[in-house]
Each structure stands twice: as C-alpha cells, then as structure tokens.
UniProtKB/TrEMBL annotation:
Pfam families: ABM (PF03992). Signal peptide: none annotated. SUPFAM superfamilies: Dimeric alpha+beta barrel. This is ABM domain-containing protein. Residues 5-98 form the ABM domain.
Length: 107
C-alpha cells in the first residue's frame, strides 16, 4: 500500500479575490517544484459553482507525512496561510481534505 498522502483544498474566494488567490498559488509552484522533491504533485484548478461563483482547487500529493510536515514549515506556505486568514479573502473557510488512494488510474 502506498504511503503517499493526497490533499485537496477547495477554496471559495470572496468577490474580487479569485485572481489574487490564483496568482499567489501559481507563484508558489516553481519554488515548491524546485525545493520540495517529496511534494509529488502541486496543481491548481479553477471552476465555478452552479451560481457562477469562482472556486479554486488545489490538488497536492506528498510522498509521506514527513513531506507534508516539511511543506507546512516553509515560509512560502506560512505567508500564504497569513493571506488566507485575512478577513475578506474567502466567502467561507477553505475545505481541506486529506485522503488515501482507494483505486483508479492516471495517464
């Protein structure tokens, strides 16, 4: 069984905040890629709610718990977490899901 840990964060930006959230997340990608070899996947997606509101989704895969712990201690993530905590950034708190792979495939 794989020890990889999968994280999905579903974020509901406040009106006018979607572009800033996406930009901040996108800016983190090169640093995470270059400095965190046990972060196996770090992808940002966008969507809309049925009402047309923006949704930002992060899919992340970590080699193990130590990889998540290491990522959580970076200044990059701490700065983003401060931004996330600012009033008016989100319509509701982000939903964070940690999962283990159950089945399926990826090409």
């Amino acid at each position: 069984m794989s020890t990889s840990i999968y994280l999905t964060a579903v974020m509901y930006p406040a009106p006018g905040k979607a572009e800033e959230i996406k930009s901040r997340l996108n800016t983190m990608i090169p640093t995470v890629h270059d400095t965190e070899p046990t972060t196996l996947q770090y992808e940002i997606y966008t969507s809309k709610t049925p009402e047309g509101d923006d949704v930002v989704i992060a899919h992340e895969t970590y080699a193990n718990q130590a990889a998540i712990d290491s990522h959580s201690q970076t200044d990059l993530l701490k700065d983003f977490q401060k931004f996330m905590a600012e009033e008016g950034t989100f319509k509701q708190p982000p939903l964070i899901y940690f999962a283990e792979k159950y089945g399926g495939f990826r090409r």
